Amino acid sequence: MAQALVVGLVIGGIYSLFALGIVLIYTGSGVLNFAQAELGTFTLFVAQILVVEHHLPYAVGAAASIALALAIGVTFERLAVWPLLNAPRVTVAVATLALLALAVALEITLFGPVGRNLPPPITGHSVNVIGVFVSPNQIASLVLVALVAGGLAAFFRYTDFGLSVVAAAQDQEALRFLGIPLARASMFTWGLAAVLSALAALLIQPDIGVISPGAYSGIFIRALSAALIGGLGSMRGAFLGGVIVGVGEAAIRHATVGSSLTGLPELCIFAAVVLTLVFRPQGVFGSR
Amino acid sequence: MSPPPTGEVVVEAREVVAGFGANTVLHGVNLSVERGACVGIFGLNGAGKSVTMKCLAGLVPVRTGTIELFGQDVTAEPPEARVPRGVAYLPQARQLFPRLTVEQNLRLGGYVMRRHDKARYASIVDDVYSRFPRLAERRTQLAGSMSGGEQAMLAIGRALASDPQILLIDEPSAGLAPAVMDDVLAMLLQLRAEGLTILLVEQNISFGFRLVERAAILQRGLVVYEGDVAHLDTARVAELLGVGRLLSKQLSASTARTTTATKPRRTPKKKVT
Ligand SMILES: Nc1ncnc2c1ncn2[C@@H]1O[C@H](COP(=O)(O)OP(=O)(O)OP(=O)(O)O)[C@@H](O)[C@H]1O
Ligand SMILES: [Mg+2]
Q1: Segment among A17-21, A184-188, B259-263 with least mean pLDDT
Q2: Prediction ipTM score
Q3: Mutation test of ligand 1: which of B26, B29, B51 has the most ligand atoms closer than 8 Å to its C-beta?
C-alpha cells in the first residue's frame, strides 16, 4: 500500500502541473484550455524523434520539446486569444478545441498512428526508502515538481511581473489604467501553461510508456478533475487537487487490483468532482 | 487655499466625441484643467461623466476630437502610455484587486515607477501609509475583505502610489457612510492644498462643491455650463442638476463654505528625483 501511495504521489504531482496550466489559463483568460494535455503529447513526439531517431541526448530532446511548447503557447495567444479579448469566452474555448483537434491531426499525419517508445531519461535501480522502492525517475519527477511549485509561488509573490500576472486574472482593465502592459501578462500565462504541459508530459511518459496520438486525453480528464477539486481559481488548489487525484487513484487501484472493478478509480474521481461541485463549488482552496 | 493655478494646462479635451457601437455618448466635450486646479464634472445619471473620464484615461477610444496632456496630443495613446505622463485614474467602481493584499495593490499602483526607481517608490508608499494609517495597519489584509471606507482609501492610495501629476477621480463618495465621506473629503482637500491637480466626477453635490473650485455640468454628452464655484449661478446649476429650490439653498451653503474656508497653506509636495 505504501508503494502505491508513493506512485500516486509522483503521478499526482505531475497531474498538478497539468492542472496548474488549466488554472492559470482559466483565471487569466476565463476559458478552459481543452488542449492543455494534448499540447504536451505533441511536443513529446518531437522529443521522441530527436532522442530515438536522431540519437540526440535526452536533455536536448526535452529542451526542444519545451521550447516548442513555449512557441506554440505564445503563438496561439497572439493569434487566437488576444484578438478575442472582448469576445465571448466560449469563442476562445472553441479555439482551444480547434488547437486540440489540430494537434491530434498533426500527430497522426506527421508521426503516424503507431505508438512510439521513449526510453526513460535516467536508468538505474530503484532505491529502497524505508521499505518503499522508488526509481530515480520518480525521485527526479518529485524534485522537479517541488521546484516548479516553489519557484512559481515565489515568482508570483515576490516579482512585480509575477504579481501583475496574478492581478491580470482579477481585473484586466485595472491593470491597463495602472500602466501595466496587459499583453505581456497574457502571453506569459499561455506560454507558461504550454511549458508546464510539455514538462508534465515528459515527466509522466515513463509511467505511461507508449506515446500515441490522443493518448493523453485520459490525463486531461484527471487534470481537469484535479483543478475542479482544488478550485479552478486557485493555484494552490491545483497542486492539492493533483495530489488528491493521483494518490486516490493509486490507492483505489491497489485495493481493487485483480478484481473486476477496473473502472473504480475513474468512477471515484468523477464522484469526488461531483461532490466538490455540489458542496463546495469554488473547490477546496477556491474563494467564493 | 490651494496654490494658485499656474496657467499651464495639464489636461485638455477638445470636441471629444465617443460612444459604443451605434450609441454616441459624448457629442463634443470641451474641458481644460490647469496645473494645481481642482475641477468637478457634475451631471445626471447617464450624462457621460464616467465615459469622459475613461476617454481621458485612455480606456474608451475617442472618435473625433483630441485629448492633450501637458500640451501633447495623446488621443491615440493607450492608458499604459499615459500613466508615465503622470495620469492616475480612479474609476467609479474602484477596481481594486480583491484577492491581493493592501501592500500588493499599492505595489501595482507604483508598477511603472518601480521598474526604474524602487527607492522612490519606497518613499512614496511611506507617504501613502502616513496619510492612511489604517492601510499601514492592514498591509497584509486582502483588499476584498476590507470595509467600504478602507477600500475607498486604498483606491486613493493606489492612485497616489504612481506619484501622479493629475488625479482623475470618479465618484469617490459613492457608497460611503457620512463619517467616512468626511475623511475622504479631508484627504482630497489636503491633496488639493498640496497642489495636486484634480479632476473629479461627483453625484453628491455637497461633497463635490466643497472640494472643487471650478465646476462643469455635463448634460447628454455636452458641457452645458462651466464656472468658478465662487461665482456660481446657483439657480441655473440647481435646475441643470435637477435639484429643487430647497437643494439649491444647500448648494449655495456648501459653495459659500468652500470659498470662506481657509486651509493652512502647504508647500507643494517636493518631487523626489
Ligand atoms: N461600456 C459601455 N458600453 C455601452 N454603453 C456604455 C458603456 N459605458 C457607458 N455606456 C453608456 O454611456 C452613457 C453614459 O454613461 P456614463 O457611465 O458616462 O454615465 P455617468 O454620467 O457616469 O452616470 P452615473 O452618474 O450614473 O455614473 C450611458 O447611457 C451608458 O449606458
Ligand atoms: Mg459614472
Answers
A1: B259-263
A2: 0.87
A3: B51
